Amino acid sequence: QVQLVESGGGLVQAGGSLRLSCAASGSFFSINAMGWYRQAPVNGRELVAAITNYGSTNYAASVKGRFTISRDNAKNTVYLQMNSLRLEDTDVYYCNAKVSGHNYWGQGTQVTVSA
């Protein structure tokens, strides 16, 4: 079992920055990949950014160049640095961890970008 605890969400003005953190705990040997998703209006959760345990990253087109995902394997923690935030980035952001073929989710953290 894996527990994910997110932090760092909040209210920020457009153009500002926020940093999300997600710490994993529980009984596991290693985490294959960690990432951040947000709730899409129609098709469920959509990928924002992901990083493997080797450091390979993947970003949604809408956040490339603005968001940076990083990971501290020793702390089982993933970070999402969000810069140049836009109104359309407002959403609930969910941390995800893939462990031994299973998906685990955090409880979500609200990010609100105001004009």
Q: What oligomerization state is this entry in?
A: single chain
Total helices: the number is 0
Mean pLDDT: 94
Q: Structural class given helices, strands, pairing? A: mainly beta
Cα-atom Rg, whole angstroms?
Answer: 13 Å
Tell me the major beta sheet. Answer: 7 strands, mixed
- What is the helix content? under 10%
* Poorly predicted ranges: none
Q: SSE string, helix = H, strand = E?
A: EEEEEEEEEEE
Described by the principal axes of the CA atoms, the overall outline is globular
Strand content: over 45%
Distance between the termini: 40 Å
Number of strands: 11
Describe the structure.
0% of the residues lie in helices and 59% in strands. With 115 residues, the chain is mostly beta strands. The termini are far apart.
